[in-house]
Amino acid sequence: MKLSASILPIKVGRYSVVLSRDDADEIGVVEGDRIRISKGKATTSASVQIATGLIARGRIGIYQDVAEELEIQDGDEVEIYPVARPPSVEFIRKKLEGGKLSKEEIYEIIEDVVENNLTEIELTAFVLSNYLVGMDFDEIEWMTRAMIDTGETIEFEKGIVVDKHSIGGVPGNKVSLIIVPTVAAAGLLIPKTASRAITSASGTADTMEVLADVNLSVDEIKEITQKVGGVIAWGGATNIAPADDRIIRVENPLSIDPRPQLLASVMAKKGAVGARHVAIDIPVGSGAKLESVEEGRKLAGEFVELGRRLGLNLACAITNGSQPVGRTIGPALEAWEGLKALEEKKGSTSFLEKSLGLAGLIFELSGLSPNGYELAKEIFTSGRSLEKFREIISAQGGDGDVRSDEIPLGSERFSLESTVEGAVVDVINSRIVKIARLAGAPKDKGAGIYIHKKKGEVVKTGEPLITIYAEKSWKLSNAMEFAIENPPVIVSGMILERYPSYRMV
Amino acid sequence: MKLSASILPIKVGRYSVVLSRDDADEIGVVEGDRIRISKGKATTSASVQIATGLIARGRIGIYQDVAEELEIQDGDEVEIYPVARPPSVEFIRKKLEGGKLSKEEIYEIIEDVVENNLTEIELTAFVLSNYLVGMDFDEIEWMTRAMIDTGETIEFEKGIVVDKHSIGGVPGNKVSLIIVPTVAAAGLLIPKTASRAITSASGTADTMEVLADVNLSVDEIKEITQKVGGVIAWGGATNIAPADDRIIRVENPLSIDPRPQLLASVMAKKGAVGARHVAIDIPVGSGAKLESVEEGRKLAGEFVELGRRLGLNLACAITNGSQPVGRTIGPALEAWEGLKALEEKKGSTSFLEKSLGLAGLIFELSGLSPNGYELAKEIFTSGRSLEKFREIISAQGGDGDVRSDEIPLGSERFSLESTVEGAVVDVINSRIVKIARLAGAPKDKGAGIYIHKKKGEVVKTGEPLITIYAEKSWKLSNAMEFAIENPPVIVSGMILERYPSYRMV
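Structure tokens for the assembled complex are given below, as produced in the milestone run.
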């Protein structure tokens, strides 16, 4: 059926179109049914909504999501026809029943994910089946390959391509700001695609965006990497492993991260940019994604096995995730801390040791040096990391001459002071993130937290524990209120524990 | 924030509202966030969509779903405020992790289901966690009670209230048309709420609607039951166990029916109308929901245990579900077969034996007779069942004097004839349903199938196996085409099986 488009300038977050009751009856669809919509060669699936007004017979309401995808303008002619439930729904059911999927079945599912042929319910069922039923290594390998093959890929004609990835879960993890320029300065190619924050206070892409443009296409990523050796781009602006973006939209509201999806999504992104040597950062500890070193080792083993199957030379670093990395959380604050460390060739131990350790791991994997950490430290202290970072910022359209003290931080500030004297026994990741987000991060770039005292540091009564930064005073108030009620930095005095009836001791 | 409503006359199948970018920024929500919207005392949750046009600042776009729920008209003032993810999402996560939910947690989840506080993703996660992780009897009992307590209930001041339920899966199951009047004729109260077809060709509510109004309120159900002893109403028009309707919207597209939900949804509906004696029909056999008698017994045991916990006197009948009940499928055809059997006091054995057997089970449960089947048969053959059915039809606003031959059946007809001589070895439920639906059932009331030959019956070459009825010729063509390619009635000649190389035998 051919219809004339009426653009509905609303972002609805899914692919839906609106038909008049008469047209819906004529092609025999009811509310929620699936149709295929095409404009010229561009085509996608969408679910049907029924208008009781607004959309006249012969017209079709197109929300912005579909309009952008198919480049439809008001009045354009589009063609629709009803489509059946795709076969991949049966494969999802097979997985729900505990079956093992074939390579072809997994490819079909991932293709349907990418082409938006699955409803939100069906996609949720797929993600949850992987969470509750699981996949074996064959299936994970096929899913990884399917995710690579259904998106754009980069092939470099020459050079050694490397990459790093953190599984996340620890705040302030700005290590790519040091790793990428250090590795690039050594002559390796590191086309790093990073995430924006979903539940955290700043993703590496949000942080880098303070200094340069991160919305780069695959062609730009390749070009910049070939020119200066490295890049820090937002993966979401590319079409690399696009299935992952859609799957994350389901995982996030449920706060789940099924192991097969975690492994496949990380490895697909590394595989798609042609990386040969890959370092994976697995933070463990109270408040991180994984609590114990044992869990970290198990995941590391899975990454190594999947790397082997995909022909990637891969190693994992199990790192301390029990408190934030460095002293800052939030886009501008993290950019500031990273640039300042490069400028001054010193900084927070947790931040520098981790960054140079991971850069060193990459050097060892790629055979550049048997003692990678030493090489990384040498490049960093020589100033070559800073110099390379400035080149990368310039190449990404930023001001390569920017100094850390020029980075604008939120002007609304509040310091939470210690009410006791003692030592810091805990910095609670989840509270740190919550406070930074209440203060406006990651949307308000200048919002975030500076941590004055970390674990083991001694604090006197009245000394600041954290300073909250915000751009808007009402957001600062919300963050303050929460921080006072839920202290993120725990100080222990001489009495380490107090029982209800401690006088009896 | 107070906003003026702009009604968007579109049925979107979920609760969403549309804000201008400015208003969304002002209250700090982004696309997909949850808000609470109120007009006076009426209130619901909805997810936010962002308009880039169409909705001016100070206005809020209200789709028909929310407009109907809160009775909002164009220009009405409504109030919205952002709300956090409800605690029940954490309880759903607990179940995903394999935990046992408390009574309070289950009540909270079911309340949120009823109040539309859960997104489609969260609701899918709840349903799938019950499918894959399961619930123990404590949890199922609590869920049943929560489903009763979050909806309307009926209390009869006097009389013995009974009910029946079929778990479905077998086509043509029109037994309520005989059971309800027979039971009511014996002086029991049977306020039967029935379903419409979801994936079948006709639900009991669709069938009854051919003869009378089934869109009854809880008050009308009570009033009619008190007056004539029985009713056959569409449960979806009431607010009885409303959580079930919302849960079905997720189960249906995935073709799953988690055991805890099946048990709770059936028992909640029986509990809510105050039934004390309940007969459950569990069809088993190839092509039914359960394949074997053993599976049927297991489910029966679960129903009995849940009945015991809820204080219901319950028994199950495991019935033959391997072919359709009676000879007709489709709303008008089934109403015709039911009324004709009552008029003539005879009919298809599978239909009559099952109906009277279940009515008899109710008589035995309620202590009316130790030999219930005999009592049911006596009432049926005496004409009292027909007389009572006419009273029920009248009480539900239908024509109590209607005769079966006055029921309009689809005028577009096609008979599929046997190409061989032999005996019917199978009638395939799924194909019967598919053909009836292609012919237009349940939407086109006159569409459906008459089965001339059932299992074990002898057929000659050229004799009709089924007749397809339709209201529209193009739908008849679709049904014919499918039926010819996928014969629903399998006839075996003298050669029962033919191997590829049968000449070698």
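Chain A has 18 helices and 19 strands. Chain A has four domains: 2-82, 88-134, 162-234+267-395, 412-492. Further analysis is deferred to the final report.
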